[in-house]
Amino acid sequence: MTADTAPQRTNLLGMTREEMEAFFLSIGEKKFRAAQVMKWIHHEGCDDFAAMTNLSKALRARLAEVAEIRGPGVVYEGSSSDGTRKWVLEVEDGSYVETVLIPADNGKRRTLCVSSQVGCSLDCSFCSTGKQGFQRNLTAAEIIGQVWVAQRSVGPRRDTANRPVTNVVMMGMGEPLLNYDNVVPAMKLMLDDDGYGLSKRRVTLSTSGVVPMLDRLGDELDVSLAISLHAANDELRNELVPLNRKYNIRTLLDACHRYLAKCDDTRMVTIEYTVIKDVNDQQEHARQLAELLRELPCKINLIPFNPFPHSGYEQPSRNQVRRFQQWLFELGYTAPIRTTRGDDIDAACGQLVGRVKDRTRRHERYIQSIQIDAD
Ligand code: SAH
Ligand code: SF4
């Protein structure tokens, strides 16, 4: 049989519990096989059916014929002196995505920054991903595959107290709510005990504000929510986040209230505010921001703009970001400044990937480094 005529094997990596159960039923097996195989894949990082010793030999052979566990290929893996680790991954069509693991709290927290799309269609004016345009949505297997690769490389999850990845933030490349059908199954696997078993508070979706999909998300999941606000008036936000022309600030904040109403009482939204020199870093901006967020249970993260070639924007000085922080403090907000990490390996989180393969100029890649580390 040639490669062209060989039957396609089903990739089990991105399947939710329900999908995996349906798969086993479809091959005449019992549903409980799903949990067994999920544990092998996501707890042990296994990609070889032959190693799944609690399955019969016959079933292992059958699975090897009809199924596969195929994650993204690791093109590069690096660690920086501050403990940040980065993987450049090659996905199906030869595009690259990057995944960054950022340690915090003396190693107690290890946050993985995950991408949802190759490129992004939303074209925020200060974002290098936006500047690259949109190439395609990642599949659920490619999204969860980033967690799978990171965990495999750090070590299998032997016990819940010592997880290689303790938190996930969907703050890599792409707008997760514009790839809803793949992001939601991947997030379900992050939360599932037979997947990565992370609590909903430790899994964060970051969005620039796709309001209808945010409402849909709230009906299905109650993961932590981060909103990329960056401006407290519509005129400025229209410029920075063009999606604001479709769903303006009021519409977006109303959607945040509806989202929170579907979660438990103590939940807060994280407001991401990229501080850009002379654009949104003045006292008046702090006042507007404080006023705007008065009614919303939220915390603000300040992210100094991370410059990239031809962005047309500048990074504010450290002092200016501190002043902005102080103004917010005086108005009743404690807003941590998220600092760049993993500089020596070009680690990136926040705007991501910078280094998607450009097929015409493979070697001319660039990357931006920033850490956004939600709880
Ligand atoms: N598309 C989603 C998630 C990915 S972007 C979103 O926009 O929320 C993750 C975060 O990085 C967003 O808050 C985004 O605004 C921010 N970001 C993008 N480019 C940046 C830059 N050059 N400097 C600092 N933060 C940036
Ligand atoms: Fe897309 Fe987010 Fe970048 Fe905007 S900030 S272009 S939504 S990845």
Can you put this structure into words, describing what you see?
The structure is a single chain. This protein is α/β, with parallel strands linked by helices. The protein contains 11 helices and 13 strands. The strands form 3 sheets. Strands 3-4-5-6-9-10-11-12-13 form a 9-stranded mixed β-sheet. Strands 1-2 form a two-stranded parallel sheet. A two-stranded antiparallel sheet has the order 7-8. Strand 4 and strand 5 form a beta hairpin. The protein is elongated and about 70 Å long. Bound molecules: S-adenosyl-L-homocysteine and iron/sulfur cluster.
Salient structural properties:
single chain; 11 helices; 9-stranded mixed β-sheet; alpha/beta; binds iron/sulfur cluster; 375 residues; two-stranded parallel ribbon; binds S-adenosyl-L-homocysteine; 31% helix
**Widest β-sheet, arrangement of strands:** 3-4-5-6-9-10-11-12-13
Q: Helix coverage percent of residues?
A: 25-40%
Write out the distinct hetero groups bound to the structure. Answer: S-adenosyl-L-homocysteine, iron/sulfur cluster
**Relative strand content:** 15-25%
Radius of gyration: 21 Å
Compute the number of strand runs. 13
Protein structure class: alpha/beta
